[in-house]
Amino acid sequence: MVKSFRSIFCLTIAVALSIVFLVGCSSKSTSTSALVPKKLVNSGYLTYGTAATFPPFEYMDGKNYKGFDIDMAKEIAKEMNLKVKTQSMDFNGLIPALTGNRIDIINSAMYENATRKKQVDFIPYLKISNDIVTKKTTKEKFKSLAALSGKTVAVTQGAIEAVYVNQENIKLKKAGKAVIKELSLPKASDTYVAVKNGRADAFLDSSPGVAYLMKKEPNTYKIQASFGEKTTIGIAVNKNNKDMKVKITKAIKKLNKSGKFNKLMAKYDLPKELNYYK
């Protein structure tokens, strides 16, 4: 009788624990599946486009993709119970790839501006400024974009810095001053080399990108000034895919709430003050 009672008791406990386990798994599965976008370019994958030439956000380490955005995409995909599929391309090809439905999102530290907002929707995640950088041996002082009047300035093709140069040139023309001579190059690293080799007097780049460069080559360059402190960068999604925007936003907010987002920022020496959701 005692043995029978013990057997029934143990069986009851086992059943109860199984139910708790199954309910817990079901709840987790339901929570995760709720973030899976309705439309995906590749089933089971979050497919994103990136121009992997912009450290510390995205760059190549041998044949491997590295950087803050690369790691962030993996974490976002985990929240959605998806894997990632990376499509590398020139920066200028990112928006056409998105609007042509060849990728789900653009994950390439893309600056938000009025022109781009007409083409795609953004989920902002960082606020950053930009730097004016010259060779360390440069004696001239450039404390603003206006001070670059008449100088050759290297910028990355399709990047926001080219827009800043164009906007400044409009002001310089109105003031009767010499415009900035824009040297547009395919990659951010090309702009660094242009200054190093004397093809350009200065280059413009994001403050995090410059900080990364200064660590690698502290004796080659110097920061003259910073500008555009209110600039935001974000993940771009198709305007006709509102569901994707909602799901990506929820995933990023979950990463912030869990502390994973700030850990990623610390990994790449990005000050937490840059966090859009701080």
From TrEMBL:
GO cellular component: cell envelope
Pfam hit, one: SBP_bac_3
Localization of this protein: Cell envelope
Stretches of the chain forming a coiled coil according to its record: none
Limits of the Solute-binding protein family 3/N-terminal domain: 45-272
PROSITE patterns, A to Z: PROKAR_LIPOPROTEIN, SBP_BACTERIAL_3
Protein keywords: Signal
Primary localisation category: other
InterPro entries: SBP_3_CS, Solute-binding_3/MltF_N
Similarity field: Belongs to the bacterial solute-binding protein 3 family.
Protein name per the record: Family 3 extracellular solute-binding protein
